[in-house]
Design the sequence.
C-alpha cells in the first residue's frame, strides 16, 4: 500500500506532463492568392477557419498588418475584435490589383473532412467588402485544388506541402 501511495503521484504527474505537451497536428498548405485587376488601394485579405455551423473558429492568415483597418472587415471583426487573440499569421502589406502572394497556412488536421470550411474575406479602402470572396469546404480534395473568387480575389490555389 505504501508503494502504491508513492507511485500513484509520480504516475499522475507523468500522465499530466505527457498530455499537457501533446500538440495538435497541423498540415502545412501553400496558398497562392491571385487578385483581380482593379485600381485603388491594396486589399486586406483574411483567411478564417469556420466550424460546421459556419461560425468563426480560428484566423489562419491576415494579409495587411496595419491593424487600425481590421474593423473594415466587419464580419471577421465581430469575431476577432471581441477576443483579440494574438495572430501569428499576419504578413506584410496589403496586396494590390493584379498582384499575387504566396503564404503557408497551418491547417488543423483534425478539422479536415469534418464539415469545416475556409473563408477568404477581402476589403479595399473606399471600395467593396466581400464577406465570402471565396469559401470552400475543408476537404483533402479542396486542399490541392484551385478555387475561383467572387470579389477582389481572382483565384486561390492550394498546394499541400
Sequence:
Amino acid at each position: 500500500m505504501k508503494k502504491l501511495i508513492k507511485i500513484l503521484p509520480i504516475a499522475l504527474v507523468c500522465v499530466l506532463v505527457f498530455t499537457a505537451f501533446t500538440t495538435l497536428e497541423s498540415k502545412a498548405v501553400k496558398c497562392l492568392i491571385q487578385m483581380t485587376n482593379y485600381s485603388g488601394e491594396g486589399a486586406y485579405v483574411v483567411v478564417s477557419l469556420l466550424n460546421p455551423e459556419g461560425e468563426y473558429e480560428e484566423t489562419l492568415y491576415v494579409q495587411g498588418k496595419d491593424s487600425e483597418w481590421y474593423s473594415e472587415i466587419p464580419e471577421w471583426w465581430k469575431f476577432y475584435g471581441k477576443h483579440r487573440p494574438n495572430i501569428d499569421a499576419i504578413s506584410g502589406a496589403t496586396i494590390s490589383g493584379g498582384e499575387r502572394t504566396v503564404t503557408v497556412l497551418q491547417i488543423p488536421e483534425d478539422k479536415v473532412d469534418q464539415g469545416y470550411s475556409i473563408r477568404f474575406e477581402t476589403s479595399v479602402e473606399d471600395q467593396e467588402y466581400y464577406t465570402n470572396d471565396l469559401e470552400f469546404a475543408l476537404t483533402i480534395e479542396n486542399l490541392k485544388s484551385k478555387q475561383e473568387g467572387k470579389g477582389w480575389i481572382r483565384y486561390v490555389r492550394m498546394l499541400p506541402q
Notes: The mean pLDDT is 86. Residues 24-160 form a domain with the Immunoglobulin-like fold (CATH 2.60.40). DSSP finds two helices and nine strands in the chain.
